[in-house]
Amino acid sequence: MTQPEPVQAVKQRRDRALASLVGAVPYAQFLGIYFERHGDELTAVLPYDEKLIGNPLLPAIHGGVIASFLEVAAIIELSWATIWPDLEAGRVTPEQMAENLPRLPKTIDFTVDFLRSGLPRDGYARARVNRSGRRYASVHVEAWQDNRARLFAQATGHFLMPQNG
Amino acid sequence: MNAQNFINALPFAKALDMRLDSIGKGRAEISMTWDARFVGDPATGVIHGGAVSALMDTCGGVAVLSYPGATTTATIDLRIDYMRAAKPGARIVARAECYHVTRNVAFMRATAHDGGDTPVATATGAFTFAAKDQSA
How many domains in chain A? Predict the structure, then answer.
């Protein structure tokens, strides 16, 4: 009987794969976005920074930052959900992934609903893949700050999936 | 305050190094240089869609603010259609117009070009609109 993979090895494998996926997107780094992972569930985090402000009088986070944050969260979630089965089955290792990063989905359209102004503090976002086909995918994203039930923005986007891996 | 100073007063517009090229009567043109830090797909060097959204949102907001009588504004919703990848290295120019205004809402449409024949992206959005109190 084979021993189950030690829990630390499982976590390291998943975290390394996620880090190489996120680390390869310069714009996500520019905004300071990082991801927290529980099993396969991702939460995108946007730490507050002065440069993210749009309206200095309020002050409020720039709508473009919010749109960007949601789009980054959607693309990473979609890509993560695509590689997850191969990663778990051992068909691809984090090392192979880092060497040969999967092509990212391309945004077809993205609609952002600005529900409240973004306060000068950290933001969080979680994306849900509502449909993922061979060619097209539809993703919904919710973002909040202090209170999970009070969203400050939500978005829906359609994406063209990369072909041939 | 002149128009470029207005852009510089928006920290994120400054962070993306946006340049206000023209403004007036519900229209605005704002552009942004290609920068390796704004890349979304490392395999192609193409600017992240989110950076294009930020440019369109800023340009739309400035167009609304330039509408006669406008005071403040905020984005209600914004939809971006990505027609094609922007050429790596090329400057992206957004043009927005406020094509209809009611007492409380401004409707905006915008396009983004990189010098090619077709737009890189188009956008439509609704913004809050608050006119100066005429009775005062």
Answer: 1
Higher pLDDT, A4 or B74: B74
d(CA B2, CA B53): 24
Written as one letter, the residue type at A117 is S
Q: Does any domain span residue B71? A: yes
Across chain B, what does the average pLDDT equal? 93
Q: Quote the domain boundaries for residue B28.
A: 3-128
CA distance A8 to chain B (A): 30
Cα–Cα distances in angstroms (integers) from residue A118 to residues A63, A66, B26, B60, B111, in the given order: 8, 8, 25, 18, 25
**Contact yes or no for B78 and A63 at CB 8 A:** yes
Average pLDDT estimate for A134-158: 98
- The answer to whether the CB of B67 falls within 8 A of the CB of B99 is no
Domain with residue A60: its CATH number is: 3.10.129.10
Could you give the CA distance from residue B73 to residue B62 in angstroms, rounded to a whole number?
9
Contact call for A27 and B38, based on CB within 8 A: yes
Which chain A residues are Cβ-neighbours of B86 within 8 angstroms? none
**Contact residues, chain B, for A68 at CB < 8 Å:** 48, 50-51, 53-54
* Minimum Cα–Cα distance from B36: chain A residue: A26
Whether residue B35 is contained in a domain is answered as: yes
The minimum CA-CA distance between B126 and chain A, rounded to whole Å, is 10
In this predicted model, what pLDDT tens digit does every residue of A95-134 receive, in sequence order?
999 899 889 999 999 999 999 999 999 999 999 999 999 9
For residue B105, give the CATH number of its domain.
3.10.129.10
Residue A52 Cα, gap to closest chain B Cα (Å): 5
pLDDT in tens, B11-50: 999 999 999 999 999 999 999 999 999 999 988 999 999 9
